[in-house]
Amino acid sequence: MGAYQFKIVIKGSKPPIWRRVLVPQGITFEQLHQIIQAVFCWSDYHLYEFEFRTMGIRVRDDRVEEDFDMPGTISSGTVIDELVADTKKFTYTYDLGDNWEHTVEVEKVLEEDTEPYARVTKYKGDVIPEDCGGICGYYQLLDTLADPQRLAAYNEENGFDYKEWAESQGMREYDADLVNEALKQLAFPDGNMPEQEGVKLADIFRFYDKESITELAKRHGLSGYSKLKKEELIRKTAEYMLCPEVMSEYFVCARDAEIRLFEQVLQGEGHIPYVEQENMDYLYAGGYVTMEMSPELYTVADDVKQAYEAINTEGFQAVRGRISRIGDYLCAANALYAVTPVSLVLEIFNKYEAKKLTEEELTDAYRILYAARPEVELIEGRFVDCVLAEQKSYDELYSRQRNVPYYIPNQQEIEWMADNGGFLMSRELQQFGEFLIKGLGVGDERIPYILRDVQSAISVGSDLQTVVDELETYGVIFRGQEELEKFTSQIMDVWNSTRMVLNRGYTPHEMVTRGFSQAAEPRRNVQKIYPNDPCPCGSGKKYKKCCGKKR
User: Fold this and answer.
1) Structure pTM?
2) Boundaries of each Plasmid pRiA4b Orf3-like domain copy (predicted)?
3) How far apart, in whole angstroms, are the C-alpha atoms of residue 421 and residue 455?
4) Distance between CA atoms of 472 and 395, rounded to whole angstroms?
5) Counting C-beta atoms within 10 Å of the first and last residue's C-beta, which end of the chain has fewer, N or C?
6) What is the second-level CATH architecture of the domain 326-419?
7) For 158-313, where are the E strands, in sequence order?
8) Cβ proximity of 229 and 296 under 8 Å
């Protein structure tokens, strides 16, 4: 059900006394009157009216006899949508004697609301006694209570305690929680609230900024989103993402590990171990999963659950599993070679998999994967890393690789690279991680990220200084020549055991032992350090006055 967001201001109040209220659509003016009474903590002792002055329409209290009706007067049994939807503000007057006049501003129209009853979301000003003589009488009351001499004279003249009378009339500090509880009781006097529909995808999107929702609309291929206002963008994006065709196209590209964790969250087990959270990234980026930060739990909207149940057939999972497996081989090939002939992917896949792969099935799977999670681009019969494709530098790399045979990974390496975004752990990397922890005092939690970045830099041919720069971004510094030399020894072992793109997946050590040419040679000092350069140990001193002085 939709709702209106009203800002109800007591006219003549300075500073303004107001309440911001969410009011369900489809109610009558009589019900709106009752809501306003509860919002201002009044008792409905007096008559009221609503007035739409630009339309020349007045909504009368049905307690007024029809003989007093004027032209343009309608019943309070009228549904508010008939008038409110076409105006920006109207007037509500309560107690036609004291004349409590309110301006009701229509701030927003919400397509969906999370609760089926009215509630105050923000306010200014305390509770006002309704029988104090209108807004002028209220300010006279405040002036009297603030002046002890005047208050004493008033009490003596009238024979009662004016302050006690004001408090008996409800004058007090405003309590929005208490008011909202009263509004709930007003909507459901028997206490039987209708069963809630649960959290919807659109409800979650309302916590996002417009730019984030726009990115989701763009990611899933929704057209015409650029001109939409936020609420309409939320509604259309959520509806579009829940379409079976759209959802199937995205989920069919999810890997087995991602589906396993998603279905775990569906069962209410939203706490994902830190080491596995990366497998939530794809569905999180697609907007189908969200995360509550305190506590750190992944959640899925109820309508997403229902939509997934509708597409989650045996046939769908068979197709998804097959595409996932093809994607694993593409990921591993891209990590090893960056430029991979279609024929080589077919050769490696069919070497290990029982159900053989054809070129047609491979290219069809590639097109499906490319639409949702592009990692490689098919160019002239070769799968090219997307970054190289964008830079148009793949031909240069391919020509440099030409005289080197392709390293063929085993199944365990393929699975490891697919599970870890191309990263492949080695004994030398493990030892390097231990050196960082024990030798340099690096925290355990940073080691996986450091090792990935170091391997990534080396595998694409970066020099030693680039590796040092990568480490510095994690706060790793060398406190002297001894540490620097230990690091150099360790990193050379890592270097020689890293599978390199230029070597088509072979390590420098393998290239030498097998007698291959054009090996990517380990380089200790690709960038020479001169006496006046900053010392690599991170001290901030010149090299000649720091580690260079000890050589």
Assistant:
1) 0.60
2) 3-180
3) 12
4) 33
5) C
6) Orthogonal Bundle (1.10)
7) 290-292, 297-299
8) no
Helix or strand holding residue 325 (H, E) = helix 314-337
Domain parsing of the chain, residue ranges: 3-127+172-187, 201-312, 326-419, 427-550
Helix (H) or strand (E) holding 154: helix 148-158
Amino acid at 179: V
Number of residues in the chain = 551
Strands 57-60 vs 73-75: parallel, antiparallel or unpaired:
parallel
Site of tokens 């975004």 = 421
Cβ atoms of residues 51 and 60 within 8 Å = no
| CATH, range 3-127+172-187 | 3.10.290.30
Q: Under DSSP, is residue 3 helix (H, G, I), strand (E, B) or coil?
A: strand
Q: What is the pLDDT along the chain (551 residues), one digit of tens a residue?
A: 689 999 999 999 999 999 999 999 999 999 999 999 999 999 988 999 999 998 999 998 887 765 445 667 888 889 999 899 889 999 999 998 889 999 999 999 988 777 889 999 999 999 999 888 899 999 999 999 999 999 899 888 888 888 888 888 888 899 999 999 999 999 888 767 665 567 899 989 988 999 999 999 999 999 999 888 999 999 999 999 999 999 999 999 999 999 999 999 999 888 988 778 889 999 999 999 998 765 578 999 999 999 999 999 999 999 999 999 999 999 999 999 999 999 999 999 999 999 999 999 999 999 999 999 999 999 999 999 998 898 888 888 888 888 889 999 999 999 999 988 888 898 999 999 999 998 888 888 888 889 999 999 999 888 888 888 888 888 888 888 888 888 889 999 999 999 999 999 999 999 988 887 654 544 333 343 434 445 544 444 444 445 444 33
Q: Under DSSP, is residue 524 helix (H, G, I), strand (E, B) or coil?
A: coil
Question: What is the DSSP code (8-state) at residue 44?
Answer: -
